[in-house]
Amino acid sequence: xxxxETLLHALKDxxxxxxxxxxxxxxxxxxxxxEQSGTLPLYTISHEPAVGFAADAAASRPxxxxxxxxxxx
Length: 73
Fold this sequence. Notes:
Elements: H1 3-13, E1 19-21, H2 28-37, E2 42-44, H3 48-60
Parallel strand pairs: 1-2
């Protein structure tokens, strides 16, 4: 198993359900591994703030891994 596949399986084992990314020369080989493996869905967005907003929204859905929010304040 190559490094990219190992990383994908580790992400999935820790509860990740999707991956968000920005296409670029440095990331394209990893994105290719992701698409070929089908382990996790990949969402690419070319606008940097938008990819952050998309990942934040996905993590905020109930039942999904992500940050916890302190509602006691």
